[in-house]
Amino acid sequence: MIALIDLLIIALYLTAMVVIGLIVKKRAARNLDGYFLGGKKLPWYMLGLSDASGMFDISGTMWMVYLAFVYGLKSVWVPWLWPVFNQIFMMVYLSMWLRRSNARTGAEWIRTRFGFGNGAGLSHGVVVCYAVIGVVGFLCYGFIGVGKFIELFLPWDVVSSFVPFQVDPAYVPHIYGIFFTSIATFYVIMGGMEGIVWADALQFTIMTISGITIAVTAINSVSPEMLAARVPAGWDTPFFGWELGLDWSHHLPALMDKISGDQYGLFAIFVMMMLFKGISAWPGLRPVTTCRRSWPAATRARHR
Length: 304
Description:
Elements: H1 4-23, H2 25-28, H3 32-37, H4 44-54, H5 58-71, H6 84-100, H7 106-114, H8 118-153, H9 156-159, H10 172-221, H11 224-228, H12 254-262, H13 267-280, H14 297-302
Helix pairs in contact: 1-10, 4-10, 7-8, 8-10
């Protein structure tokens, strides 16, 4: 059952989200750059914290915990499924390039890169449609996920006594989803990009404190000897050979079927494939053409 201190933390967090939206409202309302780009005055480390915070979700966290449990320190290589080098390139080079382009959105960047011809116009429309569909899809995903997740930790029986209306149990996740989505929508609409960044920074701070607390609790609760007795040899090292080299058959035999299903047995080949994927996904390896001659005169002047 959720404790009073938990309810106070949740209430304080939600209040902070609303306050952030109200504080940055005036700066976001100055112009389009203020709303979409935070006036181009947000420091790089705040943007980094915002991006890092946005990479966390409950399903991804549970998957990472599963990987750490099954593969031990070798699990540090599995996130390379995403193009790691692509992220590094974007941070070091492409981010500066995009900022200097004065493009506010991904759709506007299409104009910067390809101009204003018929093909560029069609590409621009596709990006806009994709963005709208993607936003709606992620909102639905978050709406359902938040509703069902909150229901587990905050049963309606606890909340119903404070609510002046009755709700069918089947629609409790919907009520939670509407409430928390409304809070997020408020600070996004009111504060724009700056509101999102500050809210994400606060969320990252909370997650960092929580992560450290959980890690300290786990370290104090489990001794190295107890852990070594319950995991296979090689679990505590990130190094590997051609094969994974983890034999769970004497501890949890069912995990051998899981490893086989994940197809990570030939681990060296798996890591090499991820390495080449990351290199081939570099934006720097793709030809970039900017059709400046097709831009209107005002646009060309803006990007000089």
